[in-house]
Amino acid sequence: MNCQHCQKELDAYLEGKLDPAGKVQIEAHLRECRECNDFYRIQSLAGRVIEAEKELVVNPFLATRVMTQIENSEIQRVTGLKGFLRPAFIAVSMAAAIFAGVMIGSIPLRSQNNKSLPVELSLIDDTTLESIDLLSLE
Amino acid sequence: MNDNEIIKSIVQGDRDSFRILVERYQQMVFRTCMGFLHNKEDAEDLTQDVFIQAYQSLSRFKGESAFSTWLYRIAVNASLNKIRKSKLKLVFERFENLTGSDRTGSDTYPVIKNDEDPEKIIIRQEHSEWLGRALDSLPENQKTAIVLSKYDDLSQKEIAEIMNTTEGAVEALLQRAKKNLREKLLFHKKLTKPSVGKIRILFLTI
Q1: Cα Rg of chain A, angstroms
Q2: Mean pLDDT, chain A, as a whole number?
Q3: How is chain A split into domains, by residue range?
Q4: pLDDT at B86
């Protein structure tokens, strides 16, 4: 068995998936080859670390923590909506009040503008009058 | 009650039924997060975030794949995002150190409980860090494939479904990942100085 073959089969050997003949071949190579033996020890250690990490059990209160957080976020969303609606309502009310004020204030002005001109003034044609520039030249 | 029935009732407003799903899948999600993060506290926090994210997007779950597959996808994406953020944070911390700014506790030490053998914890922590460093140096798709295979014992077919790819692609990914990981593990083992960690812990426990 060469190193390439040994390193390829190492996973299967560590997982116990090799047939007895393959197992004997690998073990013989590992005894002889230092590099492959290093690979084997490293991979075996990594496998043990993974197994140890997999054995860790999650906090038993995790579900409660998740549910509490979901509840809090929903409450926040509702209060957040209320918090948004209140200033929005105030802003809209103020804008409406200002608009109403402007409208009310402009009523007398409009009525003044709408007054009809005296007949004599309406007969005056401004275009025929002398330009102010001509007057200033004199 | 199967997953789809529970999901239907949650979407209709029965929020409390979500607890059943959390209890059913918490260990699975935690194991996946652990495979990426190698730290119990971080993995638990991320598991919590994964479930909250799942709850918030539950209405978008169409039931085209199994709920567990969908949850795996969320867990993998959340883990990869967390790693990316940690790397970015590390870069900023190194920059701060270079510019002489104050350090703000970037080192984390293992938590030692009274009933645990400190030496065992140190060794476990060091080995976890060593494995984590080697795994972190793999490309993201190789890392995902190896975590789902080794930590969650999923078949290539299941991994392919989670990663939205073919079984052949997963097989190739796993082969490359195992080859790279062997080299990285050997490389990082040579660089590891266990005595540094032990001295820190001894200093802390005195």
Answers
A1: 47
A2: 82
A3: 3-54, 72-107
A4: 86
